[in-house]
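Protein Record: Sequence and Backbone Structure Tokens
======================================================
Scope: a single protein chain, as residues and as a discrete description of its fold.
Tokens: labelled as protein backbone structure tokens, with as many entries as the chain has residues.
Position: the record begins directly beneath this header, with no further notes in between.
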Amino acid sequence: MTQNHLYLVDGSGYIFRAYHQLPPLTNRHGQPVGAVYGYTTMLWKLAEELGRAEGPTHMAVVLDKGSHTFRNDMYDQYKAHRPPPPEDLVPQFPMIRDATRAFSLPCIEEAGYEADDIIASYTKAAVAQGWHVTIVSSDKDLMQLIQPGVDMYDTMKNERRGADYVLAKFGVGPELLGDVLALMGDSVDNVPGVPGIGPKTAAKLITEYGGLEAALDAAPLMKKSKMQENLIAHADMARLSRRLVALHDRMDLPEPLEELTLKGIPKEPLQAFLEHHGFKTLLGRLGAPAAAVAVA
């Protein structure tokens, strides 16, 4: 019997890659669609590659539903420095959801949670049933989920990543990555961490003491230094940071695992979506008539 293999696509990563890689485009209705076109192309490429490989039996695209999550309630400065999305990208978000569904792929999002939490919850549920899981992303936070039966796939570099990759990059295995991330902080997400502690020092401390709490407990006995002072003074912020980077994996699944069965690339409704936007090249790839429709 073939083992079920679930692919979970970090859709947000795809969206921003697509937006920044392509020049501004408008569709036949005058709407900005550069990110939509790029996202559609990337998703198509992934589906084709997986179809040729020993690929998934189940697949879903996971997106962020909004900017406010339970982490903002925990720490009101979480992601506070992130600029709003570009003005011409905002109207493309609904179209990107349409693109996902045009491939007959589940598009999963949940208010109050990040896509990472949804991915973590599906991963936990799938592993509990003996499934294999591949997370399509290069996000460092999601690397905490890597374990036997769970890997990551970076489509940009065509790399599969396991625990060895995490150890080489961060100096610890996936099971301790959250402790390292808590100490080093994250300026992009505005996770405070401990001032002056970067990835190498964080990994050294976590490896030496075996975990975040043990390192913080040992700080008063460490040799006097600025690092020691910061560990003592910012211990509470380190603990808060650990809670911020932890992935919530106990969500009720918005769609049952069994409903994520991969069905291949259907001609409909994909053809209708491509015709609506005038994506001539992609219509040609689908084998549909492309006359009189083109991206402006």
Observations:
- The longest helix spans residues 34-52.
- Confidence is low (pLDDT under 50) at residues 291-296.
- The first strand starts at residue 5 and ends at 10.
